[in-house]
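lol forgot to send this yesterday, sorry. struct tokens for the thing we talked abt
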């Protein structure tokens, strides 16, 4: 059965377990935050692409629920939010409220299976360990290196990926396929870097 969820289109991809900082200034989103806080529920973050020549603006059909874990008034007077990604969802239908807030009818995607990390992906475990050595990265990172799903989602959230690549990784439901895709993306990046030298 579908659930109604307020949606926040952004030019970013939120993964389960990852954190997201937001600056809120539009009235419709201030109202959304107030409603989410009052009802102790989250909102949906969906990747959005702006209109380009010959292509209208669009948004992804698969997103991630964001739970507000902290908020504060920023130096510029805007509302600052700290959010954490929870469950993935698929949008069935959308409608816009009078204030412009997008409301989605969503189906929650099933949790991913718990799978160990095969030896061929040990390089990714090492990469996360190296990232953990950097204090600013480690502060928001708590990851089970032996869980293929968690390893892949956390790496996808930390790596400097295009929104298209990040969205494709979010939409992948098989943890090992996600790790394979991350390896492919890293190899392609290394080839590009080598050609630029």
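and heres what i got for the seq, position by position
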């Amino acid at each position: 059965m579908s659930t109604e969820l307020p949606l926040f289109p952004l030019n970013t991809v939120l993964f389960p377990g990852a954190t997201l900082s937001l600056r809120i200034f539009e009235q419709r989103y201030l109202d959304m935050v107030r409603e989410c806080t009052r009802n102790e529920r989250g909102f949906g973050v969906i990747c959005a692409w702006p209109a380009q020549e010959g292509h209208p603006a669009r948004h992804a059909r698969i997103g991630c629920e964001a739970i507000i874990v902290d908020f504060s008034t920023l130096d510029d007077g805007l509302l600052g939010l700290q959010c954490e990604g929870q469950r993935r969802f698929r949008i069935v239908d959308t409608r816009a409220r009078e204030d412009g807030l997008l409301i989605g009818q969503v189906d929650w995607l099933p949790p991913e299976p718990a799978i160990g990390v095969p030896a061929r992906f040990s390089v990714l475990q090492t990469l996360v360990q190296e990232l953990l050595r950097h204090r600013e990265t480690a502060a928001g990172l708590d990851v089970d290196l032996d869980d293929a799903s968690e390893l892949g989602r956390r790496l996808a959230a930390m790596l400097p990926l295009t929104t298209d690549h990040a969205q494709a990784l979010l939409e992948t439901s098989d943890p090992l396929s996600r790790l394979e895709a991350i390896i492919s993306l890293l190899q392609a990046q290394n080839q590009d870097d080598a050609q630029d030298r």
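The radius of gyration is 18 Å. anyway ping me if u want another try
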